[in-house]
Amino acid sequence: MLIFLFSILLICFGVYYYIMNQKLSTQKTQLKIISRQNREFKLKIETSRNAQGPIIIKFKPPLFKTGTTKESCSLYLGPMDNSPILSAIVKNTTVEIQDSAEVFNISWYEISLKSQTNINNKGWIKKASITTIDDTVNNQEDTVYEKTDT
Length: 150
Known about the structure:
Blueprint lengths: L1 H51 L3 E5 L5 E4 L3 E4 L8 E5 L4 E10 L2 E7 L9 E5 L3 E3 L12 E4 L2
Antiparallel strand pairs: 1-5, 1-9, 2-5, 2-8, 3-4, 5-6, 6-7
């Protein structure tokens, strides 16, 4: 009887080890992919900085809390056209507006999407791609926070 219980415990441990090893392998792969994307993004930023001068990001509190996409658009990692695209957003998608910024005279909203997986559901889209809902006005001052990349 004791040998049988020990065998069951050993089998359970083996299954648990296999599952955890698979999860660890998946996370290692994801980390490698993210590291590569980060290197590529840094290179794009450096190229953009050299071509257009210093990158100046002017942050402003958003006037609206929610909005709807006017058209199909891309969800970017950062508020720049050469930023990596995280996903595509279809027309008439409701988004939650987190922040707003202006880069190279283009206004952007940092938004989050409702998603079951919470993967690639937060990023930046151009202000021109969103219709805001007037009854969700957030009564904040029009303060501008400026961040300069040196």
